[in-house]
Structure formats: C-alpha cells, structure tokens
Amino acid sequence: MSIVQRQIIFGLSVSFTVLIQFSAVFFYTYPLGEWSQLWQREVFDLPFILVVPVLSVMAGLVFGISSGFYWRKNFDQLVGGLNQLHRGRTLNPVENGVMKTQELEQIWNQLEKVQHHIAEQTKLSQKLANQKAEDQEKQIQKIISQERNRLARELHDSVSQQLFAASMLMSAVNEASDEESDNKRKQLQLVEEMIHQSQLEMRALLLHLRPVALKGKSLKEGVEELLKELVHKVPIEIEWKVEELKLEKGIEDHLFRILQESVSNTLRHAKANSLNVLCIQRDDIVRLRVEDDGVGFKIDEAKTGSYGLQNMHERAVELGGTMKIVSVPNKGTRLEVTIPVIREEEAGDD
What we know:
It is built from ten helices and seven strands.
C-alpha cells in the first residue's frame, strides 16, 4: 500500500471519528425532539443528515490526498538521495517545499554526512591504492619485468622459432605433394593449419608476457599501444575509444591491469571475432567497458572458479568502484567497471 493510500484511509478514519464524536456531543447538548428533524432540516437544499457526513468525508479525502502527496514527495527525495549515494554521485539539492519537518531534515543531513564520509573513505582508499601501487612498483617491478622478459625471450627463441620452422616445412611439403595423394595432402594441410593456429596463440602469449606497468605512459597511451600491437598479432577485429583522462597513477595502473586481464581472457577463452574497448569519463565517473562477440559463459559458475574475475573485482572495489559482467552463451560477454573520481576540494569540504 502506497503512502498516498495510507494517508487517505487515515484521513477518512479521522474524519469519521470526529463526526461520531461531534454528533454525540451535539445531540447530547441539544437533544432532538424528533429524529425526523434530521431529514427535514436542510443545508444547501440537502438534508442535514446527508450534508454533514458528506462534508466530513470530503474533508478527510482532501486531508489524506494532500498529506499523502506531501509525504510521498519527501520520501521520493530521500530515496533519490540514497540512489545517488549508491551510484557514487553527489546529492542533488533539496527541492523547495520539501524536507520542512525537523525529522526529515535531520535524515537528509545525515545522508549528506554519509556522502561526505563515503567521499573521504573513497579518497583515502584511492590514496592508499596509489601509495601501494608506487611501493610495489619500486620493490618488485624490476624483478617481474626481468622474469617476464626472460620467459618471453626463451619462448620466442625456442618454441616460436620451432613453430615457424615447422610451418615453413609443412608449406614446402604441401607444395611438393603429388596430385594423386589427396588424402595425404589434406592431412598435411590440416597439420599446417594447426601449426599456424599455435603460432597465433604463441604470439598472444608473448604479447601478454610484457611487463604490466604503464612505465611512465598515460592510461590512454598504454591502452592504445596494447591494442595496436594486438591488431597486428591476432586474427580478431579490435575497435576502441579511449579518452585522455587525468587520473592518479594508482587508478590508471589498476584500470590498465583490469583491461589486460579482461583482454587476455577474451583471447584465450572467448573465440571471438571482434573486441570493443571503451574508456571514458562522465560526471566524475570513469567507465571501462570491454565487450566481445565470443562464446560467452555462465557467470555463476565462472565466479566460483575464476581467479582472474575475482582479481579484477577486487581491483575495482579497492578503488571504491564496481564491476559488472553480462555474458550470454554463444552471444558474447561485456565487462564494465565504474570508478568514482573524488576531487580534492570535494573530499575536503566540511
């Protein structure tokens, strides 16, 4: 039952109660000689006994409807404020004529304090993330970079070169095959295709063995460099829209790592033909979206067993943001991360 309906019922109940009490007091003070006088006496050309209840009911309806809409407007304002807090946005100013009661004004003031507290916590969390990213980069980035480069170099010098040599050898064998051995030639062509596919997967693996830090680049530069390199190394159509964002290093680093993890999952598991990346900022909200047209997966099953998804979710939460994944089997997957950007003046206001 809505607040308007409740107030209408309350108004009718009050008007009916007042009518009963008023009638009892009136008839006790001025007793009627005959009950027929109630029908004989007229008000506005209507019997007295009909006019009084009708007026009472109308007064109750007017009171109930007006108070119901008044309270609903107040509660709508409170619900809207809670939604704004949930989305990480700034509370809208209170409309004129709303929150006139002391209790509602206190609730709204508490919401503003909660918003201020959340802004401070988000700012502190992002600051800690920045410090953590810088400390970790100084302590382990050199070791990680050396190890990843060593693995990439060894794979390139051994497995990748062997696959290339095998591919060239199979091409030569296929060209030299007799026309009469169709069966054999088809089998050799199949082997050649498998080697070619292994080469593509090896290139993708070598690409993702690169150091994960941006190394002095902006987020836009790092993302574009990563995706441009992918375009030349994997058979997948890639489109992107990345804006130049002014973010702190810790936020950029986390977003870049989330993007790398998501793209890596797409290349390894999605079997997609196209990949679309979007990274923009609107109304102090940074939005990163990675979408493919691959095989998709069941989200409930993936959440329980995927370390990569859990890692991306933790990175988003660490920045005070959220991560949402929508995946439909045989239709594709969309990952979207939203991060609030807290400015210095906003977090410092009292």
